[in-house]
Amino acid sequence: MPMTDIEKTAEAGAASERDERVNLLDFDGEGLAAWCAEKGEKPFRARQLTRWIHRHLAADFDEMTDLAKSFRAKLKALAVIEPPQPIAEKKSADGTRKWLFDVGGGNAVEAVFIPEDDRGTLCISSQAGCAMGCLFCSTGKQGFNRNLRTSEIVGQLWQAERELRRDFGVTDPNDRIISNVVLMGMGEPLQNLDNVLRALKIFLDDNGYGLSRRRVTVSTSGLVRQIDKLAEAAPVALAVSLHAADNALRDKLMPVNRKHPIEDLMAACRRYLKVAPRDFITFEYVMLGGVNDSIEDADRLVELVRRERVPCKFNLIPFNPFPQSDLRKPDRERVLAFCRRLNAAGIVTTVRKTRGDDIDAACGQLAGEVRDKTRRAERLAKQKAEAIMILQPERRKKG
Known about the structure:
This protein is of the alpha/beta class. The chain folds into two domains: 5-80, DNA polymerase, domain 1 (Orthogonal Bundle); 85-398, TIM Barrel (Alpha-Beta Barrel). It has helices at residues 5-20, 29-38, 43-55, 69-78, 150-168, 193-204, 224-233, 247-253, 262-273, 295-308, 332-344, 376-398; strands spanning 22-23, 79-80, 85-91, 97-104, 107-115, 120-123, 127-129, 144-147, 180-183, 216-220, 237-241, 281-287, 312-318, 349-351. Mean pLDDT is 88; it is low at 6-17.
């Protein structure tokens, strides 16, 4: 039955009221304390709220039984706890799980849970789309819409942990399924630095998720000034997408290199190590068949990190093909030979296991749904075509 005018007016009024309430997932501890103080509440109320929201994963203020009824009534009138809602979920044969989260405006982002014997890692997104234009990444081919809000970043962890606890029958708020968080999903985290920093502070807060700095990793394509800002505000573990040992090749694979060349990036890594929770930088290296997977490429990497004096480990990632990438997966033996060469040079090197590729959850495959508002996808298509033509001689030479 169609709604009457009175019902429509009431629904519009309710929606307007909801819109005016603040989403408490947007606040880190300091921000929540300031908000509570503004509402006439004492600082310990913010700590209580943080524990209920991020440790107990409560969404209903009535569940927060140690809060005064008057405060709970105030919260109902002024605030909500609204993470992005999952609109699809896929489960891999290897235990990997992928969620597609609705972030409004026709956009959806992906998060992936990867279970291991000694940890559970959640890979989350920081942007709807990506503007970096890396040649080998499926997210970038969709273009870029916007940065995610803090609530949309934190909400991916909130939703995933809540569902996993329910599935595994975990009721103790101190028994977490997710022990590690990596910002390696859709987007460049350091292009959304303010919201990412607030999210990191929530992850690290003892009243929040209580993760150690060693168990939270931010991955970047190499934004030098933002790396310095991250070091100052929330120095967690750092992973840098390298993918080439010289500027000539990296320029073709990663347009960011034209503004932040390798020498500047290495200097930023050295500065970051002074405050990092680990004594090394992790370099991510996507191996592209016939492009950057030769023994000579491995030797150039050794020369680079020795010359630049950057303590590091390498994480080799065999490329996962996706439609219209025009790039190919490297031969397994070439990957292993590459790995042996780096290890023999004294650089700890591992080959990332391919997890969740049956549900398109492997590295570089996250795509989600993006309403490109920058015509970035159109420009990327042209850029990729030009780069592929340039790389063809290198493929023939290295093949």
